Amino acid sequence: MDASLKRRSPSLDEVQPKRSRSNVDERELTQSCVAGSRKSPLAVTQTNTIVAALKKIHPDYDFPIETMQTLGDRILHLALPKIGQKGLFTKDLENALNEKRVDFLVHSLKDLPTKMPEGMALGCVFKRDNPFDCVIFHSKHVGKKLEDLAPNSVIGTSSLRRVAQLKRKYPTLIFQSVRGNLNTRLRKLEEDGVYDAIILAKAGIDRMNWTEKIGQILEEEIAYAVGQGAMAVEIRDDDQFMMKVLSKITDMKTMLTVIAERAFMRKLDGGCSTPVGCNVTYEDGMLHLRGVCLSVDGKDCVEDRMSAPINFDLPRPEGEKEKTFFVSDVGVVVDTLYKNEYEKATKLGDDVATKLIELGADEILKTVKLAIPNVANIQLPVANSGTMKFV
């Protein structure tokens, strides 16, 4: 196997569990696997979606859910970029996974670091929902679009990626941080008297069955976040049993698409709080990846687009008894059959990022990171303070 595909520890070059009773996993006997989730309504909804998909394939199994708060859920008085930590919504959950209190975690993929923590692996990527951002307007603006809002209208979002891109197109709007789960943000929109609209991921709104609240879908205005719209399942990187359990709900098209996106982000050394975005399309066997990197104010912007041939539907080998897997150096569980496609998708993301670096993305991101103080030095309210406005 190519050395670049080997996992840091432990090595799982090919996983094919033996079937002797002495090697049967205890969970196969108890027919129970515990899911871990954040407590937010959206997180629980997403976990229930994964559990329902697993139940269809494993109807005799139970998948109880244990919910918990994460650091990102507890720190609500700061804008996300001000917190400046990777794994903001995942670290507490990963502690439970590492301690074997839960067997798998369900995440929004965009919340996961592009290189999984030691001992953890991305065990499954579920079929992607709509990856675009959308706008929900205050009731006084029903029927309007962003271009219809008056100058100095306030737009709520905690994403520098959204702010940087929208400032380029709508320079007269003001952007303020808005935190909390979806229910909290919608309540703030209607009750706080601060926001004229808020921007959210469409996939989350759809999953909560609130699609009718959407006033505008930002398909042209914003490159979306890496992995946005996809749900992922995290496991321990030596958990052969969960690899097998999850393998039938992995969507290979989504998997290889986000592999390219995450390689792009990783090469840039960006994170979910940096102004980096992408757009991906697939036509005639070619995966097309557009990458974008911006300054905080959106004035500096570099982008490029590249393509690679990717096959999402390879025929299974004749006589194959069980799928085998490897865990890559960045902690992704990959069907061995798709090793070459994984490498091509990774290279596509790397190549787009390399081109953006040549165009100046490195310098842009250095400036962005210097502008975001460490959390220890920040004690700022979010919605009602002019100090948190992006103007």
TrEMBL record:
Entry's Gene Ontology cellular component terms: cytoplasm
Keyword Transferase carried by entry: yes
Enzyme Commission code(s) on record: 2.5.1.61
This protein's UniProt keywords: Porphyrin biosynthesis, Transferase
Region (Disordered): 1-31
Residue stretches making up the Porphobilinogen deaminase C-terminal domain: 256-309
Annotated Porphobilinogen deaminase N-terminal domain residues: 36-243
Cofactors demanded by this protein: dipyrromethane
Entry GO MF terms: hydroxymethylbilane synthase activity
GO term, biological process aspect, one: protoporphyrinogen IX biosynthetic process
Pfam families named in the record: Porphobil_deam (PF01379), Porphobil_deamC (PF03900)
Enzyme class: transferase
PANTHER family: PORPHOBILINOGEN DEAMINASE
Family classification: Belongs to the HMBS family.
Purpose: Tetrapolymerization of the monopyrrole PBG into the hydroxymethylbilane pre-uroporphyrinogen in several discrete steps.
Name assigned to this protein: hydroxymethylbilane synthase
